Amino acid sequence: MIKVTKVEIPGLPASRERRMYVYTPKDYEKSDRRYPVLYMFDGHNVFYDKHATYGKSWGMKEYLEKTKMPIILAAIECNPDGLVRLSEYSPWDIKLPRHDLVKGRGKLTMDWITGVMKPEVDKAYRTLPDRENTFIAGSSMGGLMSIYAAVEYNHVFSRAASLSPSLWVSKRGMAELIRSADIAAPTMVYMDMGSAEAAEAKTLRMPEAMFNTAKLLAEKGVDVAARIVPGAVHNEAAWEKRIPVFMDYLFGKNE
Question: In which band, very low, low, confident or very high, does the pLDDT at 10 lie, cut at 50, 70 and 90?
């Protein structure tokens, strides 16, 4: 079952209602058990093709129903207007060619997710609210935010999946954040990038940035996996194919 509600995130530019999606397992209503929660960015792209920006979702509903994975999945829609998504999903200011400075409001976004969204989900659903059972995932800018969340909000999230992370935003900022962070055990971070998109982003040295980030995390004691996916490009169809890999990693099936 997927429940869709409308919410606002005060303080973000062009504040408007956006959809919040909460998936519960098929047996949720028939049991008394509590469930771990996976939070995801770009909620409009997670479940429904008709809601997705480019007409193709991740297909998480089909995957979860097929595998009968016992989790709750909560996803929040971004504001896709212009450069607003960049602002919402960046912890650091961004200077783009031929544009004014994009103010990084990733901290505000994460403060809302951890301070408002998570408490509401924990209150409304039978969750396991501790950090060991609270995970986060996203792609592109959402992938950047997932790493940020696992490091800066490590007291909330113990595991993160970051697909095609937009580390170009601030390689230095991410490196400094990790080096100064107090990261608890256990913490797990999965990262990947398609070889086709890696080639396109060669001038930005994205593969190098991803593996450098993985090294810094490992030095902090994080259980980290980072890989290049042969032939994969930068879109939802490509990320959908990697769902079984990162979900198995997040939920410990590879341990």
Answer: confident
Residues 151, 154, 156, 162, Cα dihedral to 10°:
40
Q: Of 33, 30, 60, whose CA–CA distance to 45 is shortest?
A: 60
pLDDT digits (tens, 9 = 90+) for 184-195: 999 999 999 998
Letter string b/e over residues 11-46, b meaning 16 or more CB atoms within 10 A of that residue's CB: ebeeeeebbbbbbbbeeeeeeeeebbbbbbbbbbbb
Q: What is the pLDDT of residues 57-110, one digit of tens each?
A: 999 999 999 999 999 999 999 988 878 899 999 999 998 887 788 899 999 999
**The one-letter amino acid at 248:** D
Per the CB < 8 A criterion, the answer to whether 138 and 41 are in contact is yes
Distance from the Cα of residue 184 to its chain's centroid: 19
Question: If you write DSSP's letter for every residue of 177-223 in order, what string do you get?
Answer: HHHH----SS-EEEEEEEHHHHHHTGGGTHHHHHHHHHHHHHHTT-E
Q: Are 4 and 19 in contact (CB under 8 A)?
A: yes
Cβ neighbours of residue 76 under 8 Å, at least 6 residues apart?
7, 18, 19, 20, 21, 39, 40, 41, 43, 113, 117
Q: Return the structure tokens found at 191.
A: 């990262």
Give the type of residue at 115: G
CA distance 159 to 222: 10
Q: What are the structural domains of the chain?
A: 2-248 (3.40.50.1820)
Element (H, E) at 161: strand 159-163
As given in the structure block, the two tokens for residue 185 are: 């055990």
Kind and range of the H or E run holding 40: strand 37-40
Amino acid at 89: Y
